[in-house]
Amino acid sequence: MKVYEAIAEALVAEGCHDLFGLMGDGNMSLWGALGRRSDVAITSARHEAASVAMADGYARTTGKVGVAMVTCGPGLTQVGTSLMIAARGRTPIVVVVGEIPAGSKNKTQSMDQRRFVEACSTRFHTITSADNMAEEIAEAFYAARVHRGPVVLNLPMDVQEETIDWEFDYRPSTGFLPPRVESPNPDHLTPVIEKLIAAERPVIIAGRGAMAANAREEIVRLADRIGALLATSLQGKGYFAGNQWDIGIAGAFASAPAEKLLAEADFVLGVGAELGYYTTEGGLLFPSAEVARIDIKPMPEEIGVIPGLYVQGDARRTVAVLNEALESRQIRRDGFRTAETIAVLQAAPHPLEAPSDGLDPRLVAQQLAQSLPKGVLVTCGAGHFFSFPAMYMALPEGADILFSYQFGAVGQGLPLAIGTGTGNPGRPHVAIEGDGSMMFNLQELETVTRHKLQMVLVVWNDGGYGAEVHKLKVKGFDAGLAQWTSPDFVAIARAFGGDGVRLAKESDLGAAVAEGLRRGGLFLIDARVSPSMASDPYAKVHYGMENRAPLLRPVA
Known about the structure:
- The chain has 23 helices and 18 strands.
- It is an alpha/beta fold.
- It has three domains: about 5-175, Rossmann fold, CATH 3.40.50; about 185-345, Rossmann fold; about 360-545, 3-Layer(aba) Sandwich (Rossmann fold), CATH 3.40.50.970.
- α7 links the parallel β5 (about 125) and β6.
C-alpha cells in the first residue's frame, strides 16, 4: 500500500465523504486515490481559496469537519484569506496540503509552509514519516474538533509516495474526544440568577451557540419568566421569529425599535453569543446594562468591549438550570413587557423614499423575504450590501441564514454558498452576493454548473464597491474611483451553463426566485440597485442620519 492510499483511508475514517479542493503536483496521488473511492465526492474548485471557503461553508452548516485539499507552495499561499476567515469564525476544517521535499533540487514551489500557515492564525500539523502518519493525521483532526478552527495537514510529497508493507491500522480522532463540560458550575450561576431576579428591563441575546444546542425553548421559557425581550446576533438572525417579544438582531444591524429598547436595558444575557464589537455596537448599544454570557468555551478569549459575568456550559442545559432555580424561588416578572414596550414594537415604520437611480435595495430585501420558501437555506456574502438583507429581509418558517462577514473580507459569498449547498442537498438554496464580490470568484459559477448544484443567486449590483463609494464621499474624494460599468452577469451565468434574469422592478423578484427554484441548477438574478442609497448603519455613522429600519416579522 502506498502512503497516499493510507492517507485516503484515514480521511474517510475521519468522516470525509465530501471533499473540496484543487489538484496539483503536491496532492495529485492522494487526489487520484480518493477519486477511485465511491464513498468520497470531490468538488473541484477553480481557485484554491474558493475550495477552502467551500469547506468552511460545509462545516458551518453540517456540524462536520470540512476538508479541503490544495497543492504545495502557491497552492497554499492562495488560501490565506480563507484560512483567516475560518479562524475568526472558529470553523473546524482540515486543509490537506502537499509540500516539496526538503532535499529537492527543484525548489521553485518550496517555502516555509509552517510560518505562512501560523501567520494565518491556523494550526500546522505535518506528517513526519510513514511510521507516524496514523497518529499525526488523527492529531490534526483532533485539533480541528477540539479547538474548533482550521488546521493545515502538511504532506511531504516524498513521504506520500513511500510504500508501507504492514496493515494500516487507523484509529480516528473521534474515539479520543473528551466529554464536553455541559453542566454549569452552580457557584458561577448564583450571581447570574441574582442579576436576573433584580433586572427590570432584561434582554436575552442568542447566537449560533444557542442554535447549535437547540436552546430556543428554554430561552423563551426564561424570557417569559423574567419579562425579557428576545434578540439575536447577526448569525442567529430569525431564531425567535414569530415570538411577540422578538426584537430581531442586536448590534449594528438592529432595527430602529430594537435600538431604542436596547438603550433602556439594564441587564443583558448572551446565550451562545460572544457579544462582540458589532453585536454590542462597540459597547454603546446598551450603555446602562450589566452583562452576563453563557458559552461552551472555558473562558472568554479576551476581556472584550463589555466585560461581565461568564458561565461555561451548554446553552440549553445552562438556561434550563436557570429556569429551575427561578421556578424554585417562584420568580415571575413583567420586566420589559409593558404597554410602553408594546407601543414601541407596534409603531408604524418610517415611510421609504424611493431612489431615482436604481432599484430600492430595501424593497428588494423585502420582496426577497416574500419570495423565500419555508425551510430555505440562505447564504449571504459581505460588503455594504449585506446590511439590507440583514435589516429588511424577514425569514420564513424553518429558514437558516449564513453570513460570510468574518475577517471583514468580501468575495467569499459564492464559494461559501457552494459549500453550504453541497452540505444540504435537496434543500432550497438562495445565495446573495455583491457585484464587486462576484468579480473575486466569478469562475466558481462554472463549479456550480459542473457539479449540478441548485443555487438561486441574487447579485446585489450597485455598480461598484458600495462601502468605499460612501466612505470616499464622506472624505471628500471622487466616489467614481470605486465605481464601474457593470458586466452582464446573466450572460456570464449562461456562458457557464446556467441561466438568469435581470430584474426590471422590485415586484418581479418573487417570480424570478420561483422560476429559479423550479428549474434547479444555477439561476442568477441581477438586481441593479441604487448606488447612492446608503444602508442604515452607514447612513447613521457617516451621514448622521437616524436608523429607520423596521422591526421584522415573519412573512405570512
